[in-house]
């Protein structure tokens, strides 16, 4: 079984929640459940004219990595519908290599059930 990960560039996440809706629709999940959840950090002022205000998408335990979609050569539903194109889902090792390319990224291991 392949180790799957989700890499999120939270510098560009706008908090639009498209990933949540796409996941819920793709997998037929009930209202309030999804394989990814967007959270807002802030806003608060760190120093004059320097603010903390970030959106961060986090995979939930219901995330499957869209194994079936990806086996057909498609992107994971969340990544396909991400308006900021800041989500990647794929082999964990490939995504790990991209972490050193820039700061403000988070990598999550997706445990497949």
UniProtKB/TrEMBL annotation:
Domain of life per record: Bacteria
Q: Which UniProt keywords apply?
A: 4Fe-4S, Iron, Iron-sulfur, Metal-binding
Keyword Metal-binding found: yes
Boundaries of each 4Fe-4S ferredoxin-type domain copy?
A: 4-34
Spell out the coiled coil positions from the record: none
- Protein name per Swiss-Prot or TrEMBL: Oxidoreductase
């Amino acid at each position: 079984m392949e180790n799957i990960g989700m890499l999120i560039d939270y510098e560009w996440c706008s908090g639009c929640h498209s990933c949540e809706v796409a996941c819920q629709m793709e997998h037929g999940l009930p209202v309030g459940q999804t394989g990814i959840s967007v959270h807002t950090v802030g806003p608060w002022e760190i120093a004059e004219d320097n603010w903390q205000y970030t959106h961060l998408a986090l995979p939930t335990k219901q995330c499957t990595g869209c194994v079936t979609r990806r086996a057909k050569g498609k992107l994971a539903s969340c990544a396909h519908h991400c308006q900021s194109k800041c989500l990647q889902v794929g082999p964990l090792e490939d995504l790990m290599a991209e972490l050193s390319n820039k700061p403000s990224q988070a990598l999550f291991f997706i445990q497949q059930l």
